């Protein structure tokens, strides 16, 4: 399998994302003789070979099932082994479209971390584009490199073990098919580092001279954003803007319009029922705690029923305030207004995104 293309049939050695539930996706490399043990049953890898990606797989004894999904960067992001904080699709998709990352783009990324965003970048730029990603933590670098290799992404990606703040981004002996104008010549930069402002001055010699270059710095604190903005300004980056991506789910529905008259009637009705209940308890000779009262004992006068024009088809006893007969949302016999409501916040904010651009003429004047 490869993150660059799709295939139908699962073979030995393929990466499969076993979908157990929305928040439970397990990446597995299909290996003869192995099995995936879950609370939904056991799933032998041997049976996966020859099945189609996307298919539902029943458990060993026909109990429970999982789905075998084809890996995409979006699914990988929610299933990968975390070695660091990662960039999720809510942010990465926004950054990719805002910086106009497309097939053929040349990306500079630091640090690689768990490789979550690296997968999205590598897939999006495709085999025509290039990704230069840097990680200074050696064990993380080794793991990310192996993962990129296993996923076929070294076809367009170079991962470098480097401290970009102290040692910059330049690479010696770049393979020819990765070079442009003899170097990296990046047209998009993404920095997810604790101190991006110390790496920004090092970008001069690795970004494109010919085209407009976009940068995004991903920082969790506003103090970091302030330092980043100062460094960007000092280096001649323009159009600086900070964005926060906060996911919200909106619910749109109809709300019944109720007359004040109806509300007053309803309040009177409640008071009358309450009063009748108290009287009934006082007067009842045979009253025992827990006795059920007959509904006719607390029936209210006819004038407590709502407007006959609105409720004529619904019969006596209809209550527009929720109890009693149910009204279908949007029922034409009633007046409605459209309302929207924010549902519980989706957890999406992880950082502030600071965007800026470098125009080629500024870049040339600033170069050393
Ligand atoms: N964006 C990544 C992802 O989506 O998986 C996560 C990046 S993680 C938050 C930050 C990474 O930057 C860490 O792995 C850290 O080791 C690395 N890092 C920090 N300072 C660095 C530096 N000066 N040079 C290179 N990498 C650095």
TrEMBL record:
Q: Which Pfam families match?
A: GCD14
Catalyses:
adenosine(58) in tRNA + S-adenosyl-L-methionine = N(1)-methyladenosine(58) in tRNA + S-adenosyl-L-homocysteine + H(+)
Keyword field contains Nucleus: yes
Enzyme Commission code(s) on record: 2.1.1.220
User: Where would I find the tRNA (adenine(58)-N(1))-methyltransferase catalytic subunit TRM61 C-terminal domain in this sequence?
Assistant: 64-357
Q: Which keywords accompany this UniProt record?
A: Methyltransferase, Nucleus, S-adenosyl-L-methionine, Transferase, tRNA processing
Region feature (Disordered) = 272-315
Q: Which residues form the signal peptide?
A: none
UniProt lists compositionally biased (Basic and acidic residues) regions at: 272-281, 288-299
Record GO biological process: tRNA methylation
Q: InterPro entries recorded for this chain?
A: SAM-dependent_MTases_sf (IPR029063), TRM61_C (IPR049470), tRNA_MeTrfase_Gcd14 (IPR014816)
Q: Where in the cell is it found?
A: Nucleus
Q: In which residues is S-adenosyl-L-methionine bound?
A: 135, 151, 163, 192
Give, as one word, the top-level EC class.
Answer: transferase
Output one GO MF annotation: tRNA (adenine(58)-N1)-methyltransferase activity
Which cellular component terms (GO) are annotated to the entry?
nucleus; tRNA (m1A) methyltransferase complex
Question: What is this protein for, i.e. what is its function?
Answer: Catalytic subunit of tRNA (adenine-N(1)-)-methyltransferase, which catalyzes the formation of N(1)-methyladenine at position 58 (m1A58) in initiator methionyl-tRNA.
Identify its protein family.
Belongs to the class I-like SAM-binding methyltransferase superfamily. TRM61 family.
Q: How does it assemble?
A: Heterotetramer; composed of two copies of TRM6 and two copies of TRM61.
**Any idea what this protein is called?**
tRNA (adenine(58)-N(1))-methyltransferase catalytic subunit TRM61
From which lineage does this chain's organism come?
Eukaryota, Fungi, Dikarya, Ascomycota, Saccharomycotina
């Amino acid at each position: 399998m490869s993150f660059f293309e799709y295939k139908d049939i699962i073979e030995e050695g393929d990466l499969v994302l076993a979908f157990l539930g929305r928040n439970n996706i397990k990446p597995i490399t299909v290996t003869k003789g192995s099995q995936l043990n879950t609370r939904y049953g056991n799933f032998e890898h041997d049976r996966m070979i020859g099945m189609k990606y996307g298919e539902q797989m029943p458990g060993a004894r026909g109990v429970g099932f999982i789905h075998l999904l084809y890996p995409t960067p979006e699914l990988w992001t929610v299933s990968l082994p975390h070695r660091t904080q990662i960039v999720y699709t809510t942010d990465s998709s926004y950054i990719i479209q805002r910086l106009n990352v497309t097939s053929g783009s040349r990306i500079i990324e630091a640090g690689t971390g768990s490789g979550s965003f690296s997968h999205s970048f590598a897939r999006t730029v495709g085999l025509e584009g290039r990704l230069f990603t840097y990680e200074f933590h050696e064990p993380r670098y080794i793991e990310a490199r192996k993962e990129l290799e296993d996923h076929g992404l070294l076809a367009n990606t170079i991962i470098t073990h480097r401290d970009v703040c102290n040692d910059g981004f330049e690479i010696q002996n770049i393979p020819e098919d990765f070079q442009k104008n003899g170097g990296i010549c990046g047209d998009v930069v993404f920095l997810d580092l604790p101190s991006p402002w110390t790496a920004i001055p090092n970008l001069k010699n690795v970004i494109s001279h010919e085209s407009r270059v976009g940068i995004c710095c991903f920082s969790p604190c506003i103090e970091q954003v302030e330092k980043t903005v100062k460094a960007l300004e000092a280096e001649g980056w323009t159009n600086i803007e900070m964005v926060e991506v906060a996911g919200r789910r909106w619910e749109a529905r109809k709300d019944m319009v109720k007359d004040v008259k109806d509300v007053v009637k309803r309040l009177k009705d409640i008071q009358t029922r309450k009063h009748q209940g108290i009287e009934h308890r006082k007067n009842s000779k045979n009253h025992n705690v827990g006795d059920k009262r007959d509904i006719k004992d607390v029936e209210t006068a006819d004038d407590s029923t709502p407007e006959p024009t609105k409720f004529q088809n619904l019969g006596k006893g209809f209550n527009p305030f929720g109890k009693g007969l149910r009204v279908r949302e949007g029922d034409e016999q009633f007046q409605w207004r459209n309302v929207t409501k924010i549902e519980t916040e989706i957890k999406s904010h992880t950082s502030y995104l600071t965007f800026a651009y470098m125009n080629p003429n500024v870049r040339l004047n600033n170069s050393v």
